[in-house]
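Forum: Protein Structure Q&A
Topic: Joint prediction for protein chains with partners

I've read a bunch of threads here and the consensus seems to be that you should model interacting components together rather than docking separate models afterwards. I'd like to see that in practice. Below is the full input, 682 residues plus whatever partners are listed. Could one of the regulars post the assembled result?
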Amino acid sequence: MREDRLVSPTLEDVARAAGVSRATVSRVINGIRNVDPEIQETVRQAVAAVGYVPNRAARSLVTGKTGSIALVVSGAGHFFARVFTDPFFGRVVSGISGHLRPLGVHLVLMLAEAADARAQVIDYLRQGHVDGAILVSTHAEDPLPAQLVESGPPVVLFARPAQPLRISYVDVAHSAGARLAADHLIARGCERVATISGPLDVPASLERLSGFREAMARHGHAYIPSVEGNFTQESGEQAMERLLADHPGIDGLFAGNDLMAQGALLVAQSHGLRVPHDLAVVGFDDSSAALACRPPLTTVRHPVEDMSAEMSRLLLAHIEDPDRRVTSVIFEPDLVIRQSA
Amino acid sequence: MREDRLVSPTLEDVARAAGVSRATVSRVINGIRNVDPEIQETVRQAVAAVGYVPNRAARSLVTGKTGSIALVVSGAGHFFARVFTDPFFGRVVSGISGHLRPLGVHLVLMLAEAADARAQVIDYLRQGHVDGAILVSTHAEDPLPAQLVESGPPVVLFARPAQPLRISYVDVAHSAGARLAADHLIARGCERVATISGPLDVPASLERLSGFREAMARHGHAYIPSVEGNFTQESGEQAMERLLADHPGIDGLFAGNDLMAQGALLVAQSHGLRVPHDLAVVGFDDSSAALACRPPLTTVRHPVEDMSAEMSRLLLAHIEDPDRRVTSVIFEPDLVIRQSA
DNA sequence: GTACGGAGGGAGAGCGCTCTCCAATCCCGA
DNA sequence: TCGGGATTGGAGAGCGCTCTCCCTCCGTAC
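Posted by a regular:
Agreed with the consensus. Here's the joint model:
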């Protein structure tokens, strides 16, 4: 009993206990080729009896596979605050592991905020610790995607990369989402609508902004004032101050994400505006901020879980066939109507 | 070049390129024993030339070490909401990886919410994928700590386990923190103080409650009304409704964590109470909720980063010496004074 | 009775690495 | 000049597993 702890049993031990060869035990465990059902049973009992657990290192040494994939969350600056504040990541993890767990594939979460962490992640991936990686990058200039494409296992991206890259990715139709927001504000009767965009070097921000402008133009609104934020609540507050100063009469607002919407909402209220009565606010993402707001935010929601599951599907396909051509899958967002608009 | 991708170079290749033996290359890479500096240089150049990356599987097969440890976040129910909403986990990760990175040890994050996920985590740990684990459990009845102690690699816990267990852990002096809160409320001149506690099957909640009561008793307050919550904002709201109904005149509140404090604060405000003028509120944890509140929360802050670093230190010591006796390290909390009290 | 085929099991060669021996070399003092 | 210790490099045995051969055995057809 005491020795079981120190030296865990090997295939050899199981084989001896079952009175068969190592190869047969291996076959039973991996379910390959025909093995007499009776012997299978004997082996299984022996496995249980000696408390055998396959040694992953030995296995992957010969197979070249590890049976686990990494979820790499990369970004700069306000990184931890982002990951651990934004339930978006929770939905990503949930979607991925929901798809992976039944397949017996392990998910390893890696965080790469600073440059040295990034180097470590690359090391980790190159050393063959995982068979592939799903990369969620929160920053436009993040060099990680490019570095990974160059050397390393198969990678799938969340969201279209800022620079064109030979890499599969999954994204949402941002402009369609923005259009939902625009149509809703118009339907509510808003006349003077403004927008707070995300950083314009991020493709998603750009698409949301241009999609919103386009949809508004279709409704006859040629000019939509906009201020650029950086996806934080604080930047939303500052942007709203600017908007209220420059365009005092606005009665509708579309923010590039919920956090900025929340900031804007707080500022609007501190200026005595009632939401949604005086100002209708629509966010994007359906993050926890949307629910934390008073009133709760009307917002555009991506099917993050579905998107994440699709990412794992794509990644597994790439692992299976390294020469598979890269693809992109785009999902349609929904509008979640709450009280802010 | 093309083949480098498919079959990555091995030690043998480096050895051939450098004109030395495999053993020598290994020695250079691992920095063991004396190797002629000139040869070292030659080997290093060969490594760079062929683009060699050590195969971790092969290495850990022989060494029995993997060079990575797991951070297992376990809990039931509102799990994802917790991890990805509570910046507390961000601070934990930050503290751990800050300590581990310079040592070249990889951190693998694992989430174990449901029972099947838990089984998978145990598998993962037993298969020797990591050398040890740091376990953060958010639930009192979580069976994972006990299961891991029984079979698996060294484990260190965040917070004292609900059931006594032969396992090292790191915790904060909860009662001392509660006392800081009590003293502060008294110093502000509060006369009728109440508290909202966390679930009482969690040791931390219990200690905070009894510590608070004890400190208040020391100030002559024999009776402190309290309502039990479950650490969620919603439970804080419900608890506050109860408190206001049963004890209309309270002017000071200590909540078992910030989320409940936030809920309580919102309810108090909706009842027309001004914070801190009519009601002073003190939270616990210094989570993001503390800052998101209006007014921002005065709260008790643990040195989470230091605690996390200490956990990694303990874990590495246990890995180094499996027979090391278990220890607990208790940290002192601070009071962060903001506007709510 | 012989030939043949398929199913079931074993033997053994590695996967890429570390690490223990052991051999070669060198420097020193006697 | 030679012996002995220190230093440095190489040979080779595994770590635990998978997987390709190959052998045996049995049933079937001729």
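The CA atoms of residues 217 and 223 of chain B lie 8 Å apart.
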